[in-house]
Design goal:
The protein is of the alpha/beta class. It has five helices and four strands. It has one domain: Response regulator (Rossmann fold, 3-Layer(aba) Sandwich). A four-stranded parallel sheet has the order 2-1-3-4, sandwiched between helices. Helix 1 crosses helix 5 and helix 2 crosses helix 5.
C-alpha cells in the first residue's frame, strides 16, 4: 500500500515517554493482530522536549509487556511539519491539544484520544508519570479501549449504497 493511501496517526502527550508511546504501541499491536498494519503510519511525540531520545518510562514498558505489547519508540518532540505529515493528531489531554492547535493543526485533524470512548468516560488520559504503577494500569485500560474503537472506525468499510 502506498504511503498516500495510509492513515497517518500521531499520538501526542507531554513528554512522549508514558501515554503517547503506550497509545502508539497498543494501536500498532491491534492493527497487527487484525492484519491491517500496512494501512497505517503510526508515531508518537511529546509537546515538551525533556525526553527526546529516551525510551518509554519503565512502568509504561512493564504494563505494555504484561499485555503482550512492545513499545519500540524513542521520545521525540512534535514539530510544526507534523501537522502536514499526519492525518490525525491524537492528544492525550486538553493542554497538549491546545499546544498542537498553536502549531497550526486543522480542526478536523486534531482530536482528544478519549473521544473514541463512550460518553460516560473521562475526557482526558491522566498523566501517570508522578503516580504509582496502578496509574499506568488505568491509562493502559483507557488507551486499549480507545485504540480499539479508533481502529474500528478507521477500518470500517463504507456501507454499499442501495440502488433503486
Amino acid at each position: 500500500m502506498s504511503d498516500s493511501n495510509r492513515h497517518r496517526l500521531l499520538f501526542i502527550c507531554l513528554g512522549n515517554i508514558c501515554r503517547s508511546p503506550l497509545a502508539e504501541g497498543i494501536f500498532l499491536h491491534k492493527a497487527n493482530a487484525r492484519g491491517v498494519a500496512e494501512q497505517f503510519t503510526i508515531d508518537s511525540a511529546g509537546t515538551g522536549g525533556w525526553h527526546v531520545g529516551d525510551p518509554p518510562d519503565p512502568r509504561a514498558r512493564e504494563v505494555a509487556e504484561r499485555h503482550g505489547v512492545r513499545l519500540v519508540s524513542r521520545g521525540r518532540q512534535i514539530e510544526p511539519g507534523d501537522t502536514d505529515r499526519f492525518d490525525l493528531l491524537l492528544c492525550m489531554d486538553r493542554d497538549n491539544y491546545r499546544k498542537v492547535e498553536r502549531l497550526g493543526a486543522r480542526p478536523d485533524q486534531i482530536h482528544l484520544m478519549l473521544e473514541f470512548l463512550p460518553e460516560d468516560s473521562p475526557h482526558e488520559v491522566p498523566d501517570p508519570y508522578y503516580g504509582g504503577d496502578d496509574g499506568f494500569d488505568h491509562v493502559f485500560d483507557l488507551l486499549d479501549r480507545s485504540c480499539e474503537n479508533l481502529l474500528d472506525q478507521l477500518t470500517a468499510r463504507p456501507e454499499p449504497s442501495s440502488r433503486q
